[in-house]
Design a protein that fits this description.
The chain crosses the membrane at residues 28-44, 50-73, 123-141, 148-167, 179-201, 222-239, 245-262, 282-304. It catalyses: heme b + (2E,6E)-farnesyl diphosphate + H2O = Fe(II)-heme o + diphosphate. It is an enzyme of class 2 (transferase). Belongs to the UbiA prenyltransferase family. Protoheme IX farnesyltransferase subfamily. By secondary structure, the chain is an all-alpha fold. The protein folds into two domains: 16-171, Tetracycline Repressor, domain 2 (Orthogonal Bundle), CATH 1.10.357; 173-312. It is 73% helix and 0% strand. It has helices at 17-23, 26-42, 49-73, 75-80, 96-117, 120-141, 148-152, 154-157, 159-168, 173-196, 198-204, 209-212, 215-235, 244-266, 273-304. The longest helix is centred in the C-terminal third of the chain and has 32 residues, at 273-304. The radius of gyration is 20 Å and the shape is flat.
């Protein structure tokens, strides 16, 4: 990681609260919070509402800490990519040293407090998740292999397992299925983005699949991972976290997702960039709703189950 492409003169201004908040990647944090909450609600057993609130808060802080450390290490890449050039560090609003300090402090605080508020296993699980995202993905995989988003996607898939562990102190088939739902969704989601943002990754030297293997190979990979994702997503309906509501949502969404992946796979290279852009953009937008709606259905099943309306 280097700050060579960041203008040091810009750093003279004072950063606002919003700049420090942006370091925590609030959009990504929102997905972390939501999926962790679903894992907590869907888990068998219960915890006191205040403990549940604290657990989700500390998981959110841990997710934000990961974001700050990611921005610290990737400041050089962010500075040359159009999509990330306005982030606090490349924009000169926050120094890399401040981001590092904030990330480390919040990492330690969140893991210790989660362990004290719930159980040691969930605290250690959060610590492992932060380590995996920052060290395994950001520092190692992202700049080394086109499979970066495949393996590194595990970090974003751990939160529902942590939420489940808050209640149970353990891992189960259901929590693994929630993990796999996000893990298998991540590659098609990011590769679709990379298809119409390839210029950014080329410029930054990030070995995304579109850069190393080209667009046709990327489209084939999107289809392959989508085909593998469908049985995982639909199969979860027949476990304790599923039910008729989830099954309906899963069948509809996965039919649309698979159709979108086939459209990308079959697209005509001779077609205009504008037409291809529309297909890829549509799939990417659908992927943004895909995970949220699956987990919303899991939560609905869990909340309605006590009234005899959820589950099988």
């Amino acid at each position: 990681m280097t700050d060579a492409s960041i203008d040091p003169q810009v750093r003279e201004g004072d950063a606002s609260f919003g700049d420090y908040l942006a370091l925590l990647k609030p959009r990504v944090m929102s997905l972390v919070v939501f999926t962790a909450l679903v894992g907590l609600v869907a888990a068998p057993g219960s915890v006191h509402p205040f403990i549940a609130f604290c657990a989700i808060l500390f998981i959110a802080v841990g997710g934000g800490a990961s974001g700050a450390l990611n921005m610290w290490y990737d400041a050089d890449i962010d500075a040359v990519m159009k999509r990330t050039a306005k982030r606090p560090i490349p924009a000169g609003k926050v120094s890399a040293e401040e981001a590092l300090g904030l990330g480390l402090a919040l990492s330690g605080f969140s893991c210790v407090m989660l362990a004290l508020a719930t159980n040691l296993f969930s605290g250690l699980f959060l610590a492992f998740t932060i380590f995996f995202y920052v060290v395994v993905y950001t520092m190692w995989l992202k700049r080394w292999t086109p499979q970066n988003i495949v393996i590194g996607g595990a970090a974003g898939a751990f939160p529902p397992m942590i939420g489940w562990a808050v209640v149970t102190g353990s891992v189960s088939l259901e929590s693994v299925l929630m993990f796999l739902l996000i893990f298998m969704w991540t590659p098609p989601h990011f590769w679709a983005l990379a298809l119409f943002m390839r210029g950014d990754y080329d410029k930054a030297g990030v070995p995304m699949l579109t850069v190393t293997h080209g667009r046709p190979a990327t489209r084939r990979h999107i289809l392959a991972y989508t085909v593998l994702l469908v049985p995982v997503a639909v199969g979860a309906a027949f476990t304790s976290i599923g039910g008729p509501i989830y099954l309906t949502v899963a069948v509809v969404l996965n039919a649309m997702f698979l159709w979108g992946a086939v459209r990308i796979w079959k697209r005509d290279e001779a077609a205009s960039e504008a037409d291809n852009y529309k297909v890829e953009r549509w799939f990417f937008k659908l992927s943004l709703f895909y995970t949220f709606l699956h987990f919303a259905a899991i939560m609905a099943e869990a909340l309605l189950k006590p009234y005899g309306l959820g589950g099988w």
